[in-house]
Write a structure and sequence with these properties.
Number of helices: 10
Largest sheet: 5 strands, parallel
CATH topology of the largest domain: Alpha-Beta Plaits
Structural class: alpha/beta
Strand order of the largest sheet: 2-1-3-4-5
Number of strands: 9
Strand content: 15-25%
Order of helices and strands: EHEHEHEHEHHEHHEEHEH
Length: 284
């Protein structure tokens, strides 16, 4: 029996980019179809049920955010993975896309090899309903939501957030393989700290591709935070090639880490989504 090809829908009004992606992913073994308008993209998702959508934000009729919003609000299309492909690179633009339920976000100009791997990972996550991140192999998605949701009904917990900053700049300078190595190393260092001074019931997972959450007890939270901070801050410079450690090829935007802490008695979030927003954007 012939292998069933995964279907990719490309919603892109730049005909050159659309044609290039169409040809590239067909060579990679995907079934590909393209549309140039947002409304056409919504209709195509409803009728053809693609396995993934590559979605531009700037479209001639409705923008990509509205397309994503309507796909996520429809039971028939709400589980289709979405990768935003756009010229917008501001932090707020990325946050808006991710908060709408996009699986990833890539800015133009882009590395087509990186896009291929992100497409593969997103389709794999969706098809296997995996509970772990394909890069770090730690908990992701539904499993993280379950643990966070359980905390809404408990009175004694602490959540540490570990956010890796400027990874996009690092990836642009040194490539996606190097950036994936950084993510894996960071996750391993946090897991080592948990094994050393955490509890057996502590939980560690992804909030986003570059944001992690550690659920622990209030008694262990501060010690864990300081251990993790020390380990990561001492290690970040070693992710750079030796020749670039003093002057990385990133216009001064070096890798950095931010750690936060939320205690049960500080949380006023009545829903899971509001709790995740507080964890990801503590100052908003």
């Amino acid at each position: 029996m012939a292998e069933v090809k995964s279907k990719i829908l490309i919603v892109e009004d730049d005909l050159d980019i659309a044609d290039m992606l169409n040809a590239y992913f067909r060579v990679q073994g995907y079934e590909v179809f393209t549309v140039n308008w947002g409304e056409d993209g919504i209709r195509a998702c409803q009728t053809s049920q693609p396995d993934l959508v590559i979605l531009d934000i700037r479209l001639p009729d409705i923008d990509g955010y509205e397309v994503a919003r309507r796909l996520r609000s429809n039971r028939r299309t709400q589980q289709i993975p979405i990768i935003f492909l756009t010229e917008k690179s501001e932090r707020l633009d990325r946050l808006e896309g991710l908060e709408l339920g996009a699986d990833d976000y890539i800015t133009k100009p882009f590395d087509v090899q990186e896009l291929r791997l992100r497409v593969r990972n997103a389709i794999r996550r969706a098809s296997q309903d995996t509970l772990t991140n394909p890069v770090t192999s730690i908990s992701d998605g539904v499993l993280v939501d379950e643990h966070l949701g359980d905390c809404l009904h408990k009175l004694d917990w602490a959540m540490l957030t570990v956010s890796l900053k400027n990874l996009d700049d690092f990836r642009e300078a040194y490539g996606f393989v190097a950036s994936d190595d950084v993510l894996r190393a960071v996750s391993l260092m946090v897991q080592n700290a948990i094994r050393e001074i955490g509890g057996t019931e502590d939980f560690f997972g992804h909030l986003s591709p570059t944001d992690f959450v550690l659920i622990t007890s209030p008694e262990r939270a501060e010690l864990l935070r300081e251990r993790i901070r020390t380990r990561l801050e001492q290690s970040l410079e070693y992710f750079y090639p030796i020749k670039d450690r003093e002057h990385p090829a990133m216009n001064g935007k070096r890798l950095s880490v931010s750690l936060g802490c939320l205690l049960a008695d500080q949380n006023n979030s009545p829903t899971l989504e509001q709790l995740k927003i507080v964890l990801l954007h503590p100052n908003s």
